[in-house]
User: Fold this.
Amino acid sequence: MLTSERALLHWRAVRSLDDPGLAEHAVQETLLRAWRSCGRFDEAKGAVRTWLLAIQRNVVIDMARARAARPRDADWDEVDEQANSRYAHPDFTDGLVDGLLVAQLLALLPTAQREAVTEVILRDRAYQEVADDFGVPVGTVKTRVHYGLRSLRQSAA
Assistant:
């Protein structure tokens, strides 16, 4: 797997879960599920990156539901530790590198493609919703995302 795919998976997981440790676990679980189901991957239905992002979306949803279903008791020491760790991230460089990598790759795209990819892929919005916001047909948004992702794949290779 390319570094850019791992970086994108990690970046999306951190944004969704707001916890770098859980995000790393989500990436590992995504890759494990992909490995287990690689025989069912159909290239005609879409790219590997899209397939991985769909798997990751399910992993993140599962993790969020599990956290919500099993709240745990915390003593004051843990609460204080969590509050302090929110402002001191000793391992912030991974997130910074991932964000810079995504930003650099997106900067290579034409504005219309970059905006479409950002909204649909990174912000996980529906094509129709993005099309309504941009004031263009949904097919135009799909085309922009398709060519944008294709360009990103070629740039990352």
Summary: The radius of gyration is 18 Å. The mean pLDDT is 78.
